Amino acid sequence: MAADEDSAFEVYRDQVDRPLVRLFREYGAPEAHWLVLGMLANVVARVASLVPPIVLGVAIDAIFSGEGAYTLPVVPDAWLPTDQFAQFTLSAALICGAFVVTAVFTWIYGIAANNFAHRVMHAVRTDSFEKMQRLDMTFFDDKQTGEVMSVLNNDASNLEVFLDNALQNSARLGVMVLGIAGVLVYYNAQLASVTLVAVPLMFALTFWFMRAVEPRYVEQREVVGNLNTALENALSGVELVKTSNTEGYETDRVEDVSYSYFRRTMDILKLNYVYRPGMELLAGVAFAATFVVGGIWLFRGPPGPFTATLSVGTFVTFIFLTQQFVAPLAEVSNIIDQYENAKASSERVFGLMDIPVRITDDPDAVDLAAAGEGDNDGDDDSAGVEGHVEYDDVSFAYVENALQDPEDAEEYVIDGVSFAAEPGETVALVGPTGAGKSTLLKLLLRLYDVTDGAIRVDGHDIRDVTLESLRGAVGYVSQDTYLFDGTIAENIRYGRFTGVDHDVESEAMRERVIEATKAAEAHEFISSLPQGYDTRIGERGVKLSGGQRQRIAIARTILQDPEILILDEATSAVDTETEMLIQRSLDRLSEDRTTFTIAHRLSTIKDADNVLVVEDGEIVERGTHDELIDRDGLYAKLWGVQAGEIDELPEEFVEKARERHVERGVEEGPGVERGTLDD
Question: What domains lie within the chain, and their CATH numbers?
């Protein structure tokens, strides 16, 4: 997809309204008790921190200077001692007690606020991942992995920083500003007007900064996704990079996107270079003005229009509280910085969550096994599945992204395909690469939904059964084998026997794994490894050869023991001898199962019950191997080339393949087969 095109992710991200409000509404509400506890503790801690300056000012005037009465705000005079030493003792006790209360309730506030922040982010991160797992394959066809990782990792972390730091600091700032302003006005409203004169200017500067920096944070978060994609691509393809001698090229690509990230970051920092010093300057001016005006007031009486009296104790209280007032205001820049960063990130998180999922369970969907008429006494989820599969006039058009309605798609890659497979039969699909073979079988798994027509299993439209029961009944071995970082045993058990419902470490489970690997001709090479089945194979199974990875994938499917098998060139990465051994085990595995196999080597499917020759999304020939040889069509020509009976394909076939290759290589979207002839 071109960079200037809007994907579903960008469109739904732009539609997110008040993302941080939504964050608190949807995820903060269930954890509100932690937030309320934290806010109450914060208020107590901040109010307690105001006590020492107030008591100190009163003590200076009443005890040390003797210029005023010993009175404390909100405390009845009758409760206060009249003896000066007793007043001193009480003052010391109040100051020490205030520090203890501040420390204790700050600790309570920290525990509660951090619980709130991290519980919310745990829910956001897991929900985002769960939604990502449910998104249609169409989303992953046109969305870069690095950007998805950026949402799940970087953006979620930004929200965590906001909830963990900015929220705490802003709450502390709010209480301190209101509390200190109230105390200053209470003691001397005229001098307080000098201290607070910078506040409106600070708010004006903050409003300007928020308006100016917000779009720059959005751009920065987008570039982070691009940077992650560039890094992920380079690291995933490091073998190709080295063998192609393109380290310099990849470095240049990462350098370009890194520099783009640098520029976006500098755009933000340029505003910060104005905003942060500006806030600190205004806060400093407020403190300096308070000190100068208050000092003149003490030396020469009320300056200018002021008329109130000012004692030394009150002036000391003003100095201490103004200092406490200035420091939080100077931190506003950090809070705004984290707020804007979190706002941009939350838009991306909710943009991901808002993307609609089209391939879902119908509200009335039934369990395929429960709805089936089979009588299998096994312990697998497909116990009631017989394996009758029917394609009824199936057509499929690939949509460009999640925004496009499938009915608006124009180019059909599958067009009017109909065939049936009885339980226990093997149906082979052959034909040029890009003809639609893999896409045709992915429709059976509902990785994509048919555009027209229907696919039925045991008489049930697959759109009317649950995805879990459908995919649990189908075993899929792809030509592009994927293994997770972990042990060989974990990869073989993956999916079917992964989770708390199975004792994966039991001796019986171990035996089942070994039986599956023996059937896949993998037991010998696994046993020769230093740790055997407990050998870790690295990310994507990089420590194994292509043939070994493919045999592990076949063993994984054998262990699943499905009623329907899909073998998408399952032996494409093995040598001829290993292919013969695997093919023998696959023949045994498919005896009582409905099997669909996409063949690269036609010799592997000559015994299939039905062979479908697919070309340009249509079935152009069908029948047994012998029947198709007798018809002398495309299948016979391909067979002749592979068997060495003819030297090359007729020119009309080659020319048609070139045309198809050019057309599909340019026009087909992701997720649809590409390339030249298989043979």
Answer: 8-354 (1.20.1560.10), 366-473+563-679 (3.40.50.300), 480-561 (3.40.50.300)
